[in-house]
Each structure stands twice: as structure tokens, then as C-alpha cells.
């Protein structure tokens, strides 16, 4: 329950006429520290200027509270978003300065919404999502309340009793009820929508001194713990802090988790919310940072690819985490963000950055387990090197990720030289662009982006994993068979047996430091065992310009046709095709200043296709991007060995090119007695040989290749010749 002492202090403050003391994110101690700072450090000063600019613009324009009519990105949608920021900022500026103009403006906006809210019908642009009143979905309503309640909390005790009564009776309490008792399906949902609703209702409860609202938000409508904020913490995060919907939605859900967590800590420290479940909130913040490269989040599942570490959700998260842990690596993230938040935590971060305390954040090779108990697969992140050139491999061996998950078990992304080399499509959505279906997920999100063929993983018989049924997919996940990391080799291997009926898919990815290459090699082995002869495809989508291939490609110059008619294949143009009678093929492309060669070796003869995204896209909703698809026909078992080799330098300014051709001269493989050898020869005469067993065990393996015998014990060994 809320602390009686806090309620008493609020009443005493109001009775004495003292300036209100906030009780949510900004606290009395934070206000005192901010007021005592003669010159704000740059990151805090920037946030302060932004708030003052927003306030000045709002004073100039006057109150604007339109009747809601537009979907995401439309005028009224964006106006109501701007208004909750005005209320929030005006309240905080009042705390910092005590100037009446800030209180008056926040009060005027809150009263205007109080006059409107109770008579509003459900939003006219509502569709499939749970509708709001101010916005087309109730999710945005919850965000509005999370921001606005902070502004109200900052001015509440200095308002007249009449204003408090009107704002609370006609706006805040009705909105809290709308988001909870009147929207039970959303409020009970273990999902980011449910998290925002719980945070909004709970923070309102603290601000109004209402223990009922607080308990409802923490324990659910029935107060039995099956839903509500604590259930969200229990079920949406793995023990490592991985959020089941993936990093994009982890970033979005992070804000209500962090803000409500801070409100709980500031009002009821005895709950020890930041120690709950072995510190899961702090783990969630740091794991969000780990799921990024070059400042952008890994774009798995329904992700907007442009989102990165500078999002406001993580700005709040970094400020909270640094104040709780003192981890100086977080300060380097704050430096990248370029701004902080107007709280005591934000001032703490900004001061430390200004004092030069920042240290590089420690990006690590790891597996972030998935599932509440950490037993539903995981996201493997393999890193090698330092700085912007550090190579990173993302092996998506996670569970489905609920309705926002994509059907791409055992998918792969490669980053190198500061660039995304093997890409993931992310979501087909233009967030808040009215002409693109009001910013909603587009039809192509279902017909393309979620489909298996849209990703760098195996497709059998041109059908999607789990037939595209997310509820069925939600019951299955890969088994991580092996994971090991060292200075020279990072390796992960996983398998899944029900993405297709009676079909085993096994993927083993090795990141290997090789003396003969400028950057590490990625060696990827994908094994497929199907119950009957099938067509098996392995596509890779790459970023860059093709410069070379060793195949006699037949171009489709006069007329292109779609590769198929469903399951995403209808969106792929075939630009060129060639047979691979010996299973070998080679493709080189240029990305920025570095060349990349993809060496492919398959267990049987097949074909290689150059494909491009964009067929059957009448509204131009899809990005145009090339991919390479290796296809094996009429196969029950198949092995795809793929080696990705960074090499060379391209400098158009200085007009020179170095090592534009691959340094790998041969890729061979031998398989016998449930073990394999993969031999990679380089132009300098050196060779790299990978011994790989079919199953992780301590068994000894011996194989002969080209007159040489190799022996090893365990799952794998690297021989350098």
C-alpha cells in the first residue's frame, strides 16, 4: 500500500501553501539539486532548453485541444502528443523556477482536457487495436497519462481545490478507469500495451494518493497477481533481461517499466522494486544496450530499423541505471544520446559526463536467454574486435515473440566495419505517416516482412515456419546445443524440429579470427533433414553493390517474374539465375569502403538466384533490396556451408582499390561418421580447417581429407595450417 506518510506530507504541503513537492520521477531531492546548480552541465542544459522552447512555443500559439479525428501521424494525433509533453515540461519547469506562468499553463491544458474527456466517444479511426478516446489506440492514451500525470504531480498541491477537483474527477480518474476497468482485455494483457496501462494507472494512483489504483496496477484487476506490473516483470523478461518481443519493443516497453519502477521506489522503497527478480529492471536496461550495433537496435521482429540508443525511452533508462549502479560505461551511451532527462538522475548523468567520467560501454559476446525461466532459446550475440569496426553476428535462436514476432527461426544478421552487411528486413511500417495507412503496420508486414523467406534462414517447399501461425509458433523454440566464446573463436549451434513437420533444422555459426583476413570470418553451417524430398532455399539479403560472381548468370532483362505466389515469394523478383552443378558459388559486393565475398558450398547440385524485394507491391510499401538465394531441389537432407569474408579497401576520394578479390581460393568439405571437416584455403597458401561434430559431446573424432588426418575431441576444433 502507499505510504501513509507520503499522503500526509502532500496534505500538509497543500495546507501550508508551500510549493508542491513531486513524488513520481522528479523528487524533492532532485529539485533541490537542480536548483542548487549554478550552471547546468551540457546534457542537462540541452534538455532544459528544449523544455523552455516547447513552453514558449505553446504560450505563443495558445491552447490547442482539438477534437480527436486523425489516426497516427495525423494533425490531431500529433497535437495531443505535443500537449502531453507541454503539460509534463511546464510542471517540471514550475518546480525548478517557482514561476507562476508554468503552473498556469499546465493547469489550463489539464482543465481543457477535463472539459472534453468524459464526453468523448471512442476514437473515430479505431480499427483492430483496442481503441482510445484521444487516440486511435488506447496504448497512446496510456502514454498520454504517463507523461501528463508527471506534470500534474508537479503542480497538484499548488492548485486551487476547485481545479484539483475538476482535473481529478473529470480527467485523471476517468482516464485511469478507462485504461483499466473499462479496458480489461488490454489491462490484463502480458504485453507492452498492458505495461503502459499499468504504469499510467499506478503513477496516477501515487500522484492522487489512491492506494486502490496503485494496487490494481501492481497486481492486476483481480489483485491476484496473474496480471499487472509485477506479472509483466515476471513473464515478459528472461532472467537475463531479454524482452520476448525483441529489442525494438524492449526499447518501447522500457519506459513504462523504468518510470513506474522509479515511482514505486520513490513512494514505497520497502517494495525494493529494483531488486525484484534478481534486479530484472536493471538487467533489462543494460541488455537493451547490448542489443545494438552502431547505435541502432537489432531490427528483429516488428522493428522500425531507424530506432536506436538515442530514443527517449533509453535516455530515461540510462539515467535511472547510472544513478542506481554508478556504471561509468553507461555514461558513454549518454554521450551518444546527446541529452538527458529533467530529473535528479538526469542531472547526475550530465554532471558525470561533464566531469569526464565516461568509460566505453562493454559490449560483450553473450547469449540472452529467452522465456520467463530462460529455457525458450535465446539471442546469441557474437562479437570480435573493438570500436566501430567490431564485427557482430546476431543469431536469432529465440522464441516467437508473440504477435509481433516474425517466422524466422535460426535467422542471422552480420555487422562489420560499422555497417549492416547481412540484413534483417524489420517491419513493413512507416510510423506515424498518414499516407501509409495512418502509420499502422502495412499489409506487406504480414505478406512479406513476417514471412520466413524475408529473412536469412532456411525455407522448405516455399512455406513459412509454423505455416505463419504465431500462436502455434509461440509454443516452440530452438534448443541451444552449444555456445562457446574465446579470443579466436565464437560459436553457437541450435536446432529446432517443428518449424516444419518432422523436419530438423540445425544451424551452427562460427566467428573465427583468421590471420589471412582483415576481419573475422563468419562460417555458417545449416543442416536440414526433411521427411520427404523437398525444395530447400537459403536466402541471404545483403547491403551493398554486387561487384563479382563466378557463375554464368542468366539475366531476366526483358521481363521479370515473381518467384512465387504466396508466403512472401510473391514479393521477390528473380533478376538472374545460374545452376551450381558442383555446389559451389561465389558472390562479392562492396559496402562503403570494404568488400565482402559470400562463398557457398552445398551438399548437392542446385541453383543460385539473384532476387530483389518489390514484386506485387502496388503502393510501393517495400524497400528495394537484393538478396542471394541458394536452392536445392528434390532433397531430403541438405547442408549449406556459407563463408562470409570481409576483405580489401575501396577509397574513391584517393582513387585506389586494394584486394577487391577474395583471398579465399578454395572451400571444401568432407563428412563421415557423424563429423565433418570444412577446409578453407587462402591465396597465401595457408589453410583453416574446421572439425565439426554433428552432436556436442566429448567423443573423439578422426577424419581424413586430401591425405591428411585430423583428430579432435568434443564438438569442434579449429586447425590452422
TrEMBL record:
Keyword Glycosyltransferase part of the UniProt annotation: no
Location in the cell: Periplasm
Protein name listed in UniProt: Alginate lyase
Keyword Magnesium listed: no
Predominant cellular place of this UniProt entry's protein: periplasm
GO cellular component assignments: periplasmic space
Domain called Alginate lyase: residue spans: 84-291
GO molecular function list: lyase activity
Alphabetical list of InterPro entries matching this protein: Alginate_lyase_dom (IPR008397), Chondroitin_lyas (IPR008929), Hepar_II_III_C (IPR012480)
A Pfam family recorded for this sequence: Hepar_II_III_C
Keywords: Lyase, Periplasm, Signal
Signal peptide: 1-20
Superkingdom per UniProt: Bacteria
Residue ranges occupied by any Heparinase II/III-like C-terminal domain in the UniProt entry: 369-634
Amino acid at each position: 500500500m502507499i505510504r501513509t506518510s507520503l499522503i500526509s506530507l502532500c496534505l500538509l504541503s497543500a495546507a501550508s501553501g508551500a510549493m508542491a513537492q513531486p513524488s513520481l520521477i522528479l523528487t524533492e531531492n532532485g529539485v533541490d539539486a537542480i536548483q542548487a546548480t549554478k550552471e547546468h552541465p551540457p546534457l542537462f542544459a540541452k534538455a532544459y532548453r528544449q523544455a523552455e522552447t516547447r513552453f514558449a512555443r505553446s504560450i505563443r500559439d495558445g491552447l490547442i485541444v482539438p477534437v480527436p479525428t486523425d489516426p497516427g501521424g495525423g494533425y490531431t494525433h500529433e497535437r495531443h502528443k505535443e500537449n502531453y509533453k507541454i503539460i509534463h515540461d511546464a510542471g517540471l519547469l514550475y518546480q525548478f523556477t517557482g514561476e507562476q506562468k508554468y503552473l498556469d499553463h499546465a493547469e489550463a491544458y489539464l482543465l481543457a482536457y477535463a472539459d472534453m474527456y468524459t464526453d468523448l466517444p471512442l476514437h473515430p479511426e479505431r480499427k483492430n487495436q483496442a481503441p482510445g478516446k484521444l487516440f486511435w489506440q488506447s496504448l497512446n492514451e496510456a502514454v498520454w497519462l504517463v507523461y501528463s500525470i508527471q506534470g500534474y504531480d508537479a503542480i497538484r498541491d499548488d492548485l486551487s481545490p476547485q481545479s484539483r477537483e475538476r482535473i481529478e474527477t473529470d480527467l485523471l480518474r476517468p482516464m485511469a478507469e478507462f485504461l483499466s476497468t473499462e479496458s480489461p482485455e488490454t489491462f490484463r494483457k502480458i504485453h507492452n500495451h498492458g505495461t503502459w496501462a499499468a504504469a499510467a494507472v499506478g503513477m496516477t494512483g501515487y500522484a492522487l494518493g489512491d492506494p486502490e489504483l496503485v494496487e490494481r496496477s501492481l497486481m492486476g484487476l483481480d489483485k491476484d497477481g496473474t496480471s499487472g506490473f509485477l506479472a509483466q516483470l515476471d513473464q515478459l523478461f528472461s532472467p537475463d533481461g531479454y524482452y520476448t518481443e525483441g529489442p525494438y519493443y524492449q526499447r518501447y516497453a522500457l519506459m513504462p517499466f523504468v518510470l513506474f519502477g522509479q515511482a514505486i521506489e520513490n513512494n514505497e522503497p520497502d517494495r525494493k522494486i529494483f531488486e525484484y527478480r534478481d534486479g530484472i529492471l536493471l538487467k533489462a536496461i543494460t541488455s537493451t544496450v547490448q542489443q545494438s550495433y552502431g547505435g541502432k537496435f537489432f531490427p528483429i521482429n516488428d522493428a522500425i530499423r531507424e530506432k536506436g540508443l538515442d530514443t527517449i525511452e533509453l535516455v530515461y533508462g540510462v539515467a535511472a541505471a547510472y544513478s542506481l549502479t554508478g556504471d561509468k560505461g553507461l555514461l558513454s551511451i549518454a554521450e551518444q544520446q546527446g541529452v538527458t532527462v529533467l530529473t535528479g538522475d538526469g542531472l547526475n548523468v550530465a554532471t558525470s559526463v561533464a566531469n569526464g567520467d565516461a568509460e566505453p560501454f562493454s559490449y560483450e559476446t553473450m547469449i540472452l536467454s529467452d522465456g520467463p525461466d530462460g529455457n525458450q532459446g535465446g539471442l546469441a550475440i557474437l562479437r570480435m574486435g573493438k570500436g566501430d569496426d567490431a564485427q557482430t553476428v546476431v543469431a536469432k535462436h529465440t522464441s516467437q515473440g508473440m504477435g509481433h514476432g516474425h517466422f524466422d527461426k535460426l535467422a542471422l544478421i552480420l555487422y562489420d566495419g560499422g555497417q549492416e552487411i547481412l540484413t534483417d528486413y524489420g517491419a513493413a511500417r512507416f510510423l506515424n505517416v498518414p499516407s501509409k495507412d495512418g502509420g499502422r503496420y502495412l499489409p506487406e508486414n504480414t505478406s512479406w516482412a513476417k514471412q520466413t523467406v524475408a529473412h536469412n534462414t532456411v525455407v522448405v517447399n516455399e512455406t513459412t515456419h509454423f505455416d505463419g501461425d504465431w500462436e502455434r509458433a509461440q509454443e516452440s523454440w530452438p534448443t541451444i546445443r552449444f555456445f562457446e566464446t574465446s579470443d579466436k573463436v565464437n560459436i553457437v549451434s541450435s536446432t529446432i524440429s517443428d518449424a516444419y513437420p518432422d523436419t530438423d533444422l540445425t544451424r551452427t555459426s562460427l566467428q573465427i579470427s583468421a590471420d589471412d583476413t582483415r576481419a573475422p570470418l563468419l562460417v555458417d553451417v545449416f543442416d536440414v533433414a526433411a521427411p520427404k524430398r523437398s525444395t530447400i532455399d537459403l536466402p541471404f539479403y545483403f547491403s551493398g553493390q554486387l561487384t563479382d560472381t563466378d557463375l554464368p548468370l542468366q539475366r531476366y532483362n526483358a521481363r521479370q517474374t515473381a518467384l512465387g505466389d504466396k508466403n512472401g515469394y510473391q514479393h521477390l523478383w528473380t533478376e538472374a539465375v545460374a545452376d551450381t552443378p558442383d555446389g559451389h558459388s561465389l558472390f562479392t559486393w562492396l559496402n562503403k569502403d570494404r568488400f565482402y565475398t559470400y562463398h557457398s558450398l552445398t551438399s548437392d547440385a542446385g541453383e543460385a538466384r539473384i532476387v530483389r524485394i518489390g514484386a506485387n507491391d502496388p503502393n510501393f510499401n517495400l524497400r528495394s533490396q537484393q538478396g542471394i538465394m541458394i536452392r536445392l531441389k528434390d532433397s531430403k537432407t541438405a547442408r549449406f556451408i556459407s563463408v562470409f569474408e570481409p576483405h580489401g579497401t575501396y577509397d574513391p576520394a584517393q582513387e585506389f582499390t586494394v584486394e577487391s578479390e577474395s583471398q579465399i581460393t578454395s572451400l571444401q568439405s568432407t563428412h563421415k561418421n557423424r563429423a565433418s571437416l570444412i577446409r578453407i584455403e587462402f591465396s597465401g597458401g595457408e589453410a583453416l580447417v574446421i572439425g565439426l561434430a554433428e552432436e556436442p559431446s566429448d567423443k573423439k573424432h578422426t577424419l581424413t581429407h586430401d591425405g591428411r588426418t585430423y583428430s579432435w575431441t568434443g564438438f569442434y576444433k579449429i586447425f590452422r595450417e
